[in-house]
Design goal:
The chain has a domain of about 55 residues. The chain has about 100 residues and is mainly alpha-helical. It contains four helices and no strands. The mean pLDDT is about 80.
């Protein structure tokens, strides 16, 4: 029985409705399928201990992904935000040039 009325009762649900596992794979085959097209390059990098410890602590609160995966995700998000900031800067500069010349 769920502790909150808004939460579904997953135990009863899974007892009554079984998932279709006919196409399910596990082990190395499943891992290869999940990572198909994803290329990662092993590198050696020095990161402050407190930063690594913080990411390792985050893995305990996430869906079980490793700390290296979380660091990779954080770097990817930083790059995307950086690209967005650069785009905004370029747009603002262009608009200021237009305003000055027009």
């Amino acid at each position: 029985m769920p502790t909150n009325r808004n939460e579904p009762d997953y135990q009863s649900y899974t007892r009554d409705i079984l998932p279709d596992l006919t196409g399910a794979t596990r082990g190395p085959v499943a891992r290869q399928e999940r990572h198909r097209g994803v290329r990662k390059q092993p590198i050696t990098i020095r990161i402050d201990t407190d930063v690594v410890d913080a990411f390792k602590a985050l893995t305990k609160r996430t869906d079980g992904r490793g700390y290296q995966t979380l660091i990779n995700q954080a770097l990817r998000e930083w790059l995307q935000q950086r690209e967005l900031r650069e785009l905004i800067r370029e747009t603002v500069r262009e608009e200021l040039r237009r305003a000055e010349s027009g």
